[in-house]
Amino acid sequence: MRIAQTIRTRLEQSLAPERLEIIDESHRHAGHSGASPSGETHFSLVIVTGAFAGKNRVARHRMIYEILDDLMNAPIHALTLSTLTPDEAASAQ
Q: E strands, the chain, where?
């Protein structure tokens, strides 16, 4: 299974997001430390879920990192996160 699909499966099972965008930005980091010629090392995530309600940004990020723990540092080198509750996402639009 490709890394992006593994990320999607784990986050969907653990957090039941209303919205989940996984963007592979590895091509933007070619030649940098941690980059792989095959890609899937640098990701940007947008996740909207009620599971974030009442949690600050640090707690939300920790939730994501715990779910993806064994993927961090290898094969995932970098992960940019946008973590929102459904209300926050609605307000942003």
A: 19-24, 42-48, 78-84
Q: Is the pLDDT of residue 78 over 70?
A: yes
Quick check: 63 and 27 in contact, CB under 8 A? no
Q: Does residue 76 register a pLDDT over 60?
A: yes
Are 35 and 42 in contact by the 8 Å Cβ rule? The answer is yes
* Secondary element (H or E) of residue 84: strand 78-84
All domains in the chain, ordered by first residue: 3-83 (3.30.300.90)
How far is the C-alpha of 48 from the C-alpha of 75, rounded, in Å?
A: 24
**What is the greatest pairwise CA distance in the chain?**
40
If one counts every other C-beta atom within 10 angstroms of the C-beta of residue 42, the result is 22
